[in-house]
Amino acid sequence: MSKFYSRKRAYERIPVHIRTSFFYNNQSYAGTLKDLSLIGMYIEADQSLPVKSKADLLNPFKSYCVVHVPLRAGTLKVIVKIRRLVKVDNNLKSMGVELVNPSQDYLEFVSSIRNYCLINIPQPSPKQMKNRII
């Protein structure tokens, strides 16, 4: 069983810290990918998102965005659907997104990060895993 495995999720989440940009509601934003999986990402924006409420996501024109994932050989554009908004300091600055038809390049990117983490990151002890909040 992988150290990133979560019983609540169909796909493991891999903690990362990758600077990114995304295009949402006709505006470009900068942010940081905090975790990713084969089907989703969690992004923290550098500034508040122009969403008045979570109900805005019911509007199909406001629920999608394009995320630019940096690769060694350029940038991968990924279309995502916003699934969750998170308030940080009373501002909507973070979001959980689901990929719309993930490309083979994206799947290989996630697999390469996962494989690197499995080889190079020390495993937590069973006690640390037990006390970990998921």
Please render the helix and strand layout as text:
Layout: E1 14-24, E2 27-36, E3 40-45, E4 64-71, E5 74-88, E6 91-99, H1 104-120, H2 126-131
Antiparallel strand pairs: 1-2, 1-4, 2-3, 3-6, 4-5, 5-6
How would you describe this structure to a colleague?
This protein has helices at residues 104-120, 126-131, and strands at residues 14-24, 27-36, 40-45, 64-71, 74-88, 91-99. It is 17% helix and 44% strand. The chain has a single domain, classed as predicted glycosyltransferase like domains (Thrombin, subunit H, Beta Barrel). It has 2 helices and 6 strands, in the order ββββββαα. The chain has a 6-stranded antiparallel beta barrel. With 134 residues, it is α+β, with helices and mostly antiparallel strands.
